[in-house]
Amino acid sequence: MIQPKFYTPWDMSAAHWRRLGYQVRRSDLNEHGRPSDDFVERNQHSLWESDPDQVRANGYQIPFRCIDLEKKQFVLSEEDTDCIDLLKRWLNHEGYSPMFPREQWEKCNNAVAYRGGVGYVYSITIF
Fold first, then answer.
1. Helices (H) and strands (E) in the chain, counts
2. Report field, pTM of the whole predicted structure over 0.85
3. What's the domain count of the chain?
4. pLDDT averaged over the chain?
């Protein structure tokens, strides 16, 4: 079974950035072959501009994006252990999806709103 991996923009490799549609040139890499601090600073905010997926744990909400669903690789705006634990539960198909998720999202403390970067409708799972 594949274990999920969670990254922040600072942890992602050039391959991860490319998979998300960013052009990473040789000049964007540091001496270790990883995206430079300058590259990450220039691009990290655009990760969250187009209605990203959201995770809310104990009322604290952060955006995330799927790098590769099959490999269970995700990037989060920041590293938060409660949010990561909730995403692991979501990947294990725990929680439930109510009939009217929009109203439920505003009320819940623990939930995942996922659209996978496609369309306008989120699938909301409440824990």
1. 4, 6
2. yes
3. 1
4. 90
